[in-house]
Amino acid sequence: MVLFLIFCPIVAAAVIMLGAPARKTALAASFLTFAVALFLFASLDHGNADFQHVTSFSISPEWRLSFTTGVDGLSVIMVLLASIVTLAAVWFVGSIERYENAFYACLLFISGGAIGAFASIDLFFFYAFHELALIPTFLLIGIWGSENRVAAAWKITIYLAIGSFILLLGLILLYQSFPLPSRSFDIRVLRTAAGMGQIAPDAQRHVYLLLLIGFGILISLFPFHTWAPEAYAAAPAPAAMLHAGVLKKFGLYGLLRLAIPMLPEGAHHWANLLIVLLLGNIIYVGLVTIAQKRLDWMLGYSSVMHMGYIFLGIASFGVLGVTGAVVLMFAHGLSIALLFGIAGELRRRTGTLDFDELGGLARVMPFAGLAFGFGVFAAIGLPGFANFAGEIMIFFGAFRNGWEIGQFHIFQIATVLALWGVVLSTVYMLRAYRTTFMGSIREQWQTLADLSPALRIPVTLLVVALLCVGFLPQFFVRGVAPIFETLTSAKSDTQTCSPGTTRHLQTVGLSRENAPHGQGYSIR
Amino acid sequence: MSPFLFWIFAVLTVTFGAAVVLNRNPVASALSLVVSFLGLSALFMSLDAFFVGIIQVLVYAGAVMVLFLFIIMLLDIHVEERRRINWVAAVGGTGVAVILLVQICVVIGHFQSARRIFPPLATSTTDDVWHIGRLLFNNYNLPFQIIGVLVLVATIGVVLLSRREPR
Amino acid sequence: MITLGDYLVVSAILFTIGFAGVMLRRNLIVIFMSLELMLNAANLSLVAFSRFRVGANGLPDYNAQVLVFFVITVAAAEVAVGLALLVALYRARQTTDVADITSLKF
Amino acid sequence: MHSFYPWLILLAPFASATVITLFTLRWKSLSSAVSITAVLVSFCCSCFVFAHPATSASEFVWLDLPPLFRVPFGLTIDQLSRTMAVVVSGVGALIHIYSLGYMRNDEGKSRYFAALSLFMFAMLGIVFANNFVMLFIFWELVGFTSYVLIGHWFFRDAAADAANKAFITTRIGDFGFMTGILMIWMTTGSVVFAEIAPRMPMFGGHATFVAIVALLIFCGAVGKSAQFPLHVWLPDAMEGPTPVSALIHAATMVAAGVYMLVRVAFIIQASQTALLVVAWIGTITAVMAALIATQQDDIKRILAYSTLSQLGYMVMAVGLASNQAAMFHLFTHAFFKALLFLAAGSVIVMLHHEQNIWKMGGLRRRLPITFATFGAGALALIGCPPFSGFFSKDAILAVAYEHNLPIFAVALFTAFLTAFYVIRMLVIVFFGNPRSNVAGEGRESPPVMTTPLIVLAILAAVGGFAFFARNFLTLPTGEEAGILVLVLAILALILGVGLALVLYRGRAAEPVKVEFLRRKFYFDEFYGWLIFWTQELLARVAAFIDRWIIDAGAVGGSSRGVWGIGAVLRLIQVGNLQAYAFLFGLGVIALIYFAIFRS
Amino acid sequence: MITAPLLEIAVLVLGMLILMIEAFAGKIDKRVLAFAAITGLAIVLLASFFLVPSSSPANVTGFWSFYAADRLAIFFKQFALLTTILVLIMMIDYAPVVRSFFPGAVPHTGLGEFVALPLFTCAGLMYLVSAIDFVFIFVALEVVTVSFYVLVSFTRRNPMTLEAGTKYLILSALSTAFLVYGIAWIFGSTGQTNLYRLTASLANAGADSGAALLGVVFVLVALGFKIAAVPFQIWVPDVYQGAPTPVTAYLSVGSKAAGFVVLIRVLQPFMNLPQTERLIFVIALLTLIYGNLAALPQTNLKRLLAYSSIAHAGYLLIGVLCFDVRAVIFYLVAYLLMTLLSFAVLIIVAQQTGEEISDFDGLAKRSPFLAFAMLIGMVSLAGLPFTAGFLGKFYIFYAAVLQRQIALVVVGVITVGCGFYYYLKVIRAMYWQSDSNTDPIPVNGLSRVAISALIVATICLGVYPQPILDALKH
């Protein structure tokens, strides 16, 4: 079933390239994927933390490399997200003048890669599947993009290529930092080995840093974020939806899947650095977003900013924050996809996304206004939408980190600043909404047409998904929490950022006795 | 053999070798190359390598030089017309060559066995043709045959490159 | 007495002279000659080494001289091909000056 | 006993909101019908719950990560919430009905009623919430509905801006609120009121810490109830339809802040400092708003500022640790302020949305009912005995008198001001001669609008009497100092009324212009300046850094640099054989150097 | 029961037969010769799979002291055979160009030699990969080199080609001279030319390591020239650009691969000397940087591929430095697939338009098949997962990280980024740009099969590398 999920879009892409009717095939494939993903989610036993529906084909016994796929409570959520956004994105594709088939094929290829990355248990394929998206993105932006597509396409491609090679180094180092007997590409094996504390602390630090930078570039972590807005502004709407909604989550998923469970020591060691960077994402990028003059750039930057919250959840390194991060990943994926989709429709109709030229559009396209409003308020964390559930868990999780009554440590400060970030995002989102949809309308827009009924289906799909999770986050929590309880129950109560306790952690928290220095890590 | 003769021939070889490079006229270079090779073969002889010395004379002074002169005549390349020498290149090239020489000499200087004289031979080696031949046909049989292939290829190449098609 | 070193030095000088020739001269024919010079310099040191390493049977190590034999052959072959190429080049460009064949660059 | 009615109170409006948004957007009248039935249902249910004090509601878990974090969705049903529910749903119902007339032919009628229902849901949620997170959720929802309703006429720039202003300002308050919630949760390990209250000792000796927590919680109220620093949004919110102003920005939502403070009084009262600050904030708001109100020309804005100052009274009362007084005033205020707004609404409708009081005049003959009801409301507002306002305001004054004299003085002064500006408005609007021809010909509003007016008028009149109010609230026990306070209050009242009459009898234009007050103490200008010089500036700078230093500089620069190096390196291929041989030689000597001479 | 030497003999005989036919059967369509050669080589390749590798003991004399038939050798014999087959297929496509440079001659003049010479080269390569004695290395190397002299300047009416030939000849002769001199020094300092005995005698040479090192450096110069390693890469761009395209492909795959095999064999005795390691390190670093950076501004695809071959030499050298033979070998195989793929497409397209990258504009419209093939080739060269190129890089980086070659790894990552830039330039041309001329480009059946096979192989190896890794398991 998982295999079907991965290969249905890819095969569909191939068929389309061979000349099948593009739109029909794509829609059928993505709908099938969505249905199966939904069924998978429903049929999953959320009680237990380990992978289910596992299938495995051995590739290289000596490297313990095998094509293993399966899902657990975490990855099934990501797969679900990917399938939903894919369906919506494919639906949002309007009329394409050149290479229509190629366009749909690229979209499906990206989504297949993303699903594959989320659903593979094997380290190698986890990495490889994600890379599938690189060239399609390049082509999507390059061929069908808007104004400065060339520069944007080059930037995103080269940037992400370098990032993913740094990530590759990190993965290799991770693999090598295990003692020989427990070296394997199977994430489950690695995790159990790491659980026994087989990675030397210094090794953990190096690997975690590499992973952080590698994944960080893919997620547009603060200093490495400049590719994102430009690319999303230039990309055609469906591509932006898929990339911002799904692909970006791959990095976060990777951190949750690898860094958090296997490298607790690394996580503690670099916690402060990560905090600083993610505050850069939240506050600094938030301010940058406020200063944007175009809707698409604003959305791009906002998606960068919201990564900061998810990072906060990850950095909080407690089951609460991490679970919140997962929920927020899902929520942000949907909401940003919705926003990009509507923005794309606006561009298609008006030909511009300049705030100065738009205004009062809700008068002529009420449904678009309503949908965009949903997106906006989801993005600023209005209760009822999934984003709020995620954010609040993140805030609680991060705030409790290293809490001492009566005094603030870095985590508390970070949380408070992040809360202020919510205000910032309110400011720019509402301003954008007001300048775009509210207020007096210009003459030349008087005749714009509202979204066609066909387009209302994907919008409704996204909104409904957002609301469902927002009303009953427990659905996700119960599946995700068990995965991370095992790892944090030991530490989350004692962890703090005051150096004293960190020392205490290094000695007690992960027992070095089991992991003698340099075992499987020393040179040769 | 006596150091005297060695130095004579060494100087001869080196000077005419230099002449090859320094002469402007290709013909002159070719002829000085012959002389330098003769000196070289003499040095070979002085190392009791009579066979090598002889084929050196035969092949080079005989075949190769004739080939060279033949080509020169064929293309009647006369004195390299006096372009102004590119001094940068000249100095640079010379410098590199000198540095290389110095480096090699320093290595030779540190090379223990370089200070030792040649050990005496048990018997005279006038029959070295026999020894070399035996080696060549027993031990070095394979390379020897492959040299044949190489010559064949070279022949094809020469034919191919210098053949002029019927117009 | 003459040591091994003397021969090596001579061959080194010869080798570098040849190399200098390749670097300095523009006339292809002379460059070929310089290449021959280098090969023969190598031969000289080979022979010197072979004479220096007297085997148990009190004879020079003839392996090196066999190699010299091969080298001479190969050198001849190379020269042949090279000169043929030279002829072709002269037919096409009426020149044997390397300064004239620089159309392929950067 | 467990019963479903309490939940029904919440769910009926929610259901109607959903139904309207999903299905009946096209059929306006149907939507209004749905919405009104919903609100009536929840009104009846709340009456039922009110009648059966024993009712309790089942609760379900919204979020649960044992052992860390548990957010139940449960309803606290005590006297406070029951009363509040009745008031909210009652006033709400009346205003729904009134809206039928007021929004008679508005194209966004369905949207309006959907939002109204959603608001009822959210407001009642606040009323019943039994924990902080749930409270916060409905808190935000209320803000959202208020945003939607203020921006109901979104195509007016003023309305759109007002909506944004309201939402963002309250968000700033919620920022503090959330922080406070986090700190409470961290200390006591729970977000449920019932569990926190006994664990307050956990705060131990950290006095300042408690104060901070309490004040952070108070921030939420400051934002929502438009208290002193964050009051700027409420007057602008008058851009919304008048019923909205009546329901949300007078009777219920803005009172939610006070309600919340009362609900979590055990936290506020844990710190004397906090109490003092709260009290003074309330006082400042009260007097400031009253001062501004004296110089406004827009009828709705005058009412808005009066709302501000009344809310100030309530907060003051909370700060003086007298929840009963606060709730009492909230209770009466709900009636008479709603009444005033609705009456003003009917005036405005009749004048074709003319809101400037100087364009009105002599309306008492043209709209008698409106005049009568408005008058009742006005009298209640200025605390003229025996109207409801008199009792509640008197209670607060009494408390102030015995706890904190300076505050009492200010409060008294505020009472005088209140009397002044209300009478001013009354005189200008209803007496004298019509100052515009629209004021000349006008007819009384339809019964659908006047009925709610009458009902509310009665409530405003009798609401203060103990025999009535006792059923709903534990009334503050009259202090012995009561008599003196009484006298002073009435004195202030008479002074105010007298002054107003003297100044404004038969005037055609504003006799005294105090620019400073007309411009509302220049708050908006100041905030505009502040935002520009902090946030906007930072934003511009950050954007510049991002665009030019990080992106163009670091990223672009490095890539261009690498490209340049490549462009230089390829120049090595000069194409000249001699040069190649030379480079070859260089390579050789370099390698020899590395291998042999560098060891 | 066949033994390894028979393979070379078979190839040589085949070559001579072709020559005979060319010489005496005058008027036949010379493409028949190509097909004959291809079939012959295919048979030999098939036969090579039935060989049983023999481990070469240290103290043998005579034939087996020159000629090793171990797994490495056999594997690369097959490698050379495969390469030659593919190159011959390309030559068939290239035949019109060759003919066009023999104006007014008899149809297909010179095609016979054009087919025959690669066979001799192939034999030379096959000898080279199993050579374990410096004398034999020298001889085999010369066979390859001399035949390449002829091949590079084959279309000799084309001045470009002649220039390329001349440059190649001079510089290669220069490197030969260094090789001989180096061998002389190694012999002088150890008295041995056989690599295995060298190892033994080096152990007790001790003091004379200086002389031995000098020899090694000179030998490295020659080998570095063959594998196009900085600072001896200077000839590569010019020669690759000027030579007939199939020959370029042959140069960049065949002689490079053989060079690496010899390098591995030669370095084995010397690897324990710290100086050698440092030497390789420096060379690898320079090669990486030069190859990748200088490729960035290129606009001529053939020249771009030349620079990229330098770059790949750099990655391979990382593998050599870490002495991870299997990584190097896998990388070489991947390199063979993707390079030949790109060249095959280039040959076909270049005949219609040209060798500039801009000549590929709109190829996606003109011939989706060729465009896709080129896409796979480029993507694999750039190193994207699910292609052989990625796994190659993966193994190399794995070895480098394992040995903590931090500098190399860092430079490696940066240069990979550059690689993405210049390889994607081609994809960009093919897919973004649109060309006025949109008439389809014909592809004959054989090369269509070959290209498809290469695509499939590239992807399969990218997913399932085990066969190659097993090829060298002991």
Which protein chains are joined by the largest interface, and how many residues does each one contribute? B-C, 85 and 73 residues
Continuous helix count of chain A: 20
- Low-confidence region ranges of chain A: 489-524
Count helical runs of chain B.
7
One letter per element, helices H and strands E, the order of chain B comes to HHHHHHH
Q: What's the number of extended β-strand segments of chain A? A: 2
CATH topology annotation of the largest domain in chain B: Four Helix Bundle (Hemerythrin (Met), subunit A)
Mean pLDDT of chain B: 87
Evaluate the radius of gyration of chain A: 22 Å
Oligomer: heteropentamer
Which percent range fits the helix content of chain B?
over 70%
Shape of chain A: globular
Structural class of chain B: mainly alpha
Q: For this structure, what is the CATH homologous superfamily of the largest domain in chain B?
A: NADH-ubiquinone/plastoquinone oxidoreductase chain 6, subunit NuoJ
CATH class of the largest domain in chain B, named: Mainly Alpha
CATH 2nd-level architecture of the largest domain in chain B: Up-down Bundle
Strand content of chain A: under 5%
Q: How does the overall form of chain B come out from the CA principal axes?
A: globular
String of helices and strands of chain A: HHEEHHHHHHHHHHHHHHHHHH
Rounded mean pLDDT score of chain A? 87
Protein model, in words:
The complex is a heteropentamer of chains A (524), B (167), C (106), D (599) and E (474). Chain A is mainly alpha-helical. Chain A has 20 helices and 2 strands. In chain A, strands 1-2 form a two-stranded antiparallel sheet. The two termini of chain A are 42 Å apart. With 106 residues, chain C is mostly helical. Chain C has a single domain (4-100), classed as Helix Hairpins (Orthogonal Bundle), CATH 1.10.287. In chain C, 74% of the residues lie in helices and 0% in strands. Chain C contains 3 helices and no strands. Chain C has helices at 4-24, 28-52, 62-93. In chain C, helix 2 (28-52) runs antiparallel to helix 3. The model of chain C has no long low-confidence stretch (mean pLDDT 91). Chain D is mainly alpha-helical and 599 residues long. Helices cover 74% and strands 2% of the residues of chain D. A two-stranded antiparallel sheet of chain D has the order 1-2. Chain D starts with a helix and ends with a helix. Chain E is globular and about 70 Å long. Chain E has helices at 4-24, 31-48, 71-100, 111-129, 134-152, 159-190, 195-205, 209-227, 235-242, 245-270, 274-295, 301-321, 325-352, 363-366, 368-382, 388-402, 406-431, 445-463, 466-470. Chain E is built from 19 helices and no strands. In chain E, helix 4 packs antiparallel against helix 5, helix 5 (134-152) runs antiparallel to helix 6 (159-190) and helix 9 packs antiparallel against helix 10. Helices cover 76% and strands 0% of the residues of chain E. The two termini of chain E are 21 Å apart. Chain E has 474 residues and is an all-alpha fold. Chains in contact: A-D, A-E, B-C, B-D, B-E, C-D, C-E, D-E.
